[in-house]
Amino acid sequence: MSRLDPSLIADLPPFAGMDRQSLEGMLAKAVSVRHPKDSHIFREAEKANSFFLLLDGFVRVVKVTPDGEQVIIRYIAAGELLGIAKALGRETYPANAVAAADCVLLSWRSSIWDAIVSTHPGFATNTYSLVGERLVGTQDRVVELATERVEQRVANAVLNLARQTGRKTEDGILIDFLISRQDISEMTGTTLHTVSRLLSSWETKGWIKSGRQRITIIEGHELMMLATARS
DNA sequence: CCATTAAAGGATT
DNA sequence: AATCCTTTAATGG
């Protein structure tokens, strides 16, 4: 296994404020793993033996209902931790994590979590922040699902994806991985047909450009108006 | 306003 | 060729 350079992770939020020696210590205990698109990184209810840092790619966190319906909880972008069951006081993973694109990750054994947190208080606080941000995000989505119309929820989902994973192109902000209308419907609690209709009507208005599994936001402002408009 | 169903055309493998 | 993704239209809650 090749040696990993500290600069690989030094600038990522979880390791902010960590000195070089500590970074090297973390990396010495890490194993790098590759996950091809659509492979599972971990599964719900599985024993949480490892936690991960996503170095490249995108991960989809998914819950599956008893009757087989999928709900997308969130997407995780490069630089974020995932599978941090230990930080949540859990022994098992709370959901499935699937590679939404080809992914490169670092993984650590969960058994060293406590030692890391006690020797690197900064890592602990960074993790609290991450957990807090995700909590706020899910709270927002609960409010959305309870009060907003489908059109607004879809607009929000698209904007959030663009903010999280967007890449600038000549046309606008491209959501930088393959995402189907089915995926968006699973994020927003609607059907792929409704998502399809909404996206094509936005395309007609010139707000977005979308092809098969690709979405580019051209006029983010209009979408934001829609997303926040009161019915 | 939105889900469901059905049908059909395009894209991907 | 088989499968998946998207669009469109009709119907009904």
Automatic annotation (TrEMBL):
SMART domains hit by this protein: cNMP, HTH_CRP
Pfam families, A to Z: cNMP_binding, HTH_Crp_2
Record bears the keyword Manganese: no
The UniProt record lists the keyword Transcription: yes
Source taxon at top rank: Bacteria
UniProt keyword annotations, A-Z: DNA-binding, Transcription, Transcription regulation
Protein name (Swiss-Prot/TrEMBL): Crp/Fnr family transcriptional regulator
Species of the source: Hoeflea algicola
